[in-house]
Amino acid sequence: MNLESALRYSHTLLDQVVQPGDTVVDATVGNGNDTIYLASAVGKNGRVYGFDVQAAGLAATKTQLVLTGLSLQTSLIHDGHEHLLKHLPENTQISAAIFNLGYLPGSDKSIITHAKTTISAIKQCLQILQRGGLVILVSYYGHPGGKDELRELQTFLHQIPQKQFQVLNYQFINQQNDPPILFAIQKR
Ligand SMILES: C[S@@+](CC[C@H](N)C(=O)[O-])C[C@H]1O[C@@H](n2cnc3c(N)ncnc32)[C@H](O)[C@@H]1O
């Protein structure tokens, strides 16, 4: 057995909570790896809401979803995740949300996630998270601005009330080159 990377572990955790028919959020679609994984996990009776500010990634993701027969259960939204609740039907409950924080490899490195909008979006996800559900953050922070976002995020996560949520930090602490860190917030 090898300990899993933060990215691999994010799917291991999601596997435990996401069921066919669920509604879930991919807050940072990028090239759609998590969107495709989630669309497959929720199946035809579920729904994935995917957000990104970059149209090119959304278009590439749409193509992949169509090719894999997963487009019907997916809504791709070209808007910042900080406007998440505006785009979801009233009274929606989600079993999971995932954020990959940083920039999209192979695209404009100046388009990064930022603490203020990231934290706003996390709070919105926590409002509609069902009991036992998970909000997962995979933080890439090696780029300019990345450590600022990480610092503010850690401060926010430490303050989440433990009676309502438990917060996990999964991190390799002896690796070079700023390996990603996973945080998981579970509603009790
Ligand atoms: C690390 S990448 C995501 C990688 C993606 N999960 C994948 O599988 O390819 C981060 C993404 O967040 C997006 N992003 C930045 N700010 C955003 C915001 N406010 N709302 C939604 N997406 C945002 C970027 O455009 C970028 O595609």
Please characterize this protein's 3D structure.
By secondary structure, the chain is α/β, with parallel strands linked by helices. It has a single domain, classed as Rossmann fold (3-Layer(aba) Sandwich). It has 6 helices and 7 strands, in the order H-E-H-E-H-E-H-E-H-E-H-E-E. The chain has helices at 6-17, 33-42, 55-67, 84-87, 115-127, 146-158; strands spanning 23-26, 47-52, 74-78, 94-101, 129-139, 165-170, 181-187. Strand 2 (47-52), helix 3 (55-67) and strand 3 (74-78) form a beta-alpha-beta unit. The model has no long low-confidence stretch (mean pLDDT 97). S-adenosylmethionine binds at residues 28, 30-34, 51-54, 57, 80-82, 100, 102, 104, 111, 113, 117, 140.
Key traits:
single chain; 188 residues; alpha/beta; Rossmann fold; 7 strands; 25% strand; binds S-adenosylmethionine
Q: What's the short story on this structure?
A:
The protein is α/β, with parallel strands linked by helices and 188 residues long.
SSE layout:
Layout: H1 6-17, E1 23-26, H2 33-42, E2 47-52, H3 55-67, E3 74-78, H4 84-87, E4 94-101, H5 115-127, E5 129-139, H6 146-158, E6 165-170, E7 181-187
Parallel strand pairs: 1-2, 1-4, 2-3, 4-5
Antiparallel strand pairs: 5-7, 6-7
Helix pairs in contact: 5-6
The protein binds S-adenosylmethionine.
The site of S-adenosylmethionine has 21 residues, from helix 2 and strand 2.
Protein name: SAM-dependent methyltransferase
Pfam families: rRNA_methylase
GO molecular function, one term: methyltransferase activity
